[in-house]
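Ticket #4471: structure output looks truncated?

Reporter: J.K.
Steps to reproduce: submitted the chain below (128 residues) through the standard prediction queue, then opened the result file.
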Amino acid sequence: QVQLVESGGGLVQVGGSLRLSCAASGRTSSRYVMGWFRQAPGKEREFVATISWSGGSTYYADSVKGRFTISRDNAKNTVYLQMNSLKPEDTAVYYCAASKDTYYSDTYYYNSRDYNYWGQGTQVTVSS
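Returned output as attached by the reporter:
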């Protein structure tokens, strides 16, 4: 089993920045694709960003492209989400997710069904 713990959420003003972290423990592997999803009140969970296990490939939702950056440190079993120029519509619970071992180093997933492990989430609130 893999445990994922998110941190770094909080309250920020419009235009501000936050950096989310997701630490993996347990039966971790550096060959997991990692992703960030979010869920706003009354809405379905949606994809935000993903990164291949090599870190060489990333993919973003159109709504965050150019403002958010996903990265990972395999030595620390941690993935990050740097969020800049935050907007009120970014308010949500943010979840970290990990896939199972992936063979190809540049594979990434944007469908939640491709992820096997999920964190408990961290709240991000952007106030205007």
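Triage note (M.O.): checked the attachment and the full token line is present. The chain has a mean pLDDT of 95.
Status: closed, working as intended.
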